[in-house]
Every structure is written in C-alpha cells, then in structure tokens.
Amino acid sequence: MVNTKYTLLIGSFARGTGDLNSDIDMLRIGHTMSVMKPANINQHLPLSYVDYDLNSFFKLYDAGSLFLYHAFFEGRLLDGDSDQWNKLRENFVVSDNFIAPINEYLEVLEYIDSYPGYELSFVPYLSNIFKCLKNIGIFQLASRKQYDFEKMVALEAGCGLTSTDAHTLILANAVYERSMPISLQLMTEFEKSANEWNRRLNGQIARLANDI
C-alpha cells in the first residue's frame, strides 16, 4: 500500500447538513495534492484540509480513532481505490475509551478560564470555548456509543448547553475563523455571552469532568 492515496469529503457537507457557516472539509491520506471543490457545493465557501501520511493514518487506524470512524462512516470517498477503502472500513474497530482526549480539552478550558481578561477578547474567547466544548461533546457522546458529529448535537446533548448558547458559540467561531465583519448588535451579543461564560465556565468544566 506504499502508493495508496485517498481523498474524502468529510464534515457537515459529507453528512448533507452543511450551510453558509460551514467549511468544505477534505481529508487527504497519502498525498497533499489540490482538490477540486464538489460542484454541488457553494464554490465561495472555504476549503479546509486534514492531511495524514500513511504511517500516521495507520497509527490512528490501529488506535481506533474516533475521527477515522467519522471518515469511514460519514465521509464520501472522492478519489482512491474504493474496494481497498471498504476493506479498511469493514475491519475498523473504534475505541471505547475517550477519557484522555476529554481531559486534554478540559485542561485547555481550565487555561482559558484562568487567563486574566481573556473574555475581553470576545470573539476569540467564545471561539476557543466552542472548539473545546464541541470536541468534548463528541467524545462524551461516543463514550455512550452515540456517534454524532454535528456541532449543535455535541454542544446540546454532549455538554448540556441550551440551543441559544450553542448557536452563539457556533456563530462566534464562524465569525472568528473567517474574519467576518460584526455589527454593533452582534458584538453586544458576543460581549454579553463572553461575560456570562466568564462567570460559569468553571462550573461547566466541573460538570463535564464529573461526567467522565
């Protein structure tokens, strides 16, 4: 399998739930060649790559990576030997222990919570909270054998957030990642949310740690 190469569409567009706040996520295995955006997806949306050489891919494969579970069972193979890919998928066994990655993201949240004045940078503050909570939520759900990679589901069902809180975090992350212009009204909303998270983040961390 020395010359094996795969290209997959992953993420929300692979699931059919992508929108204007979504990136077009591509997984490249064994190569780093440019990939054309699928014709049925808005061509103005940014293209985001995740790259693995074959050694890294098989290390993740042997470890039962939850990310590879997503790639195998939600991803769309765009290029590569489909028979070979299907055999890999059939023999893949996902891990059932996600304590280590959950703890890693909790440690990042603890750093965010302890950093003086971090919440005054409203948008990056909320974006970083979003990224940690989204991943914690995905791992929490997977530990219950619920393999769902949707952002809203991870935040609500995995972390216990309200739909309003989840939506605000998702929106703040989209604004931050794309350097989008922000209206005064939206900035006020982000400021209010950041101040609320500054008061409650420590308690959220404790609850999530208790759920492990």
TrEMBL record:
Per its UniProt record, what SUPFAM superfamilies does this chain match?
Nucleotidyltransferase
Which domain of life does the UniProt lineage start with?
Answer: Bacteria
Q: What is this protein called?
A: Polymerase nucleotidyl transferase domain-containing protein
Which species? Methylomonas lenta
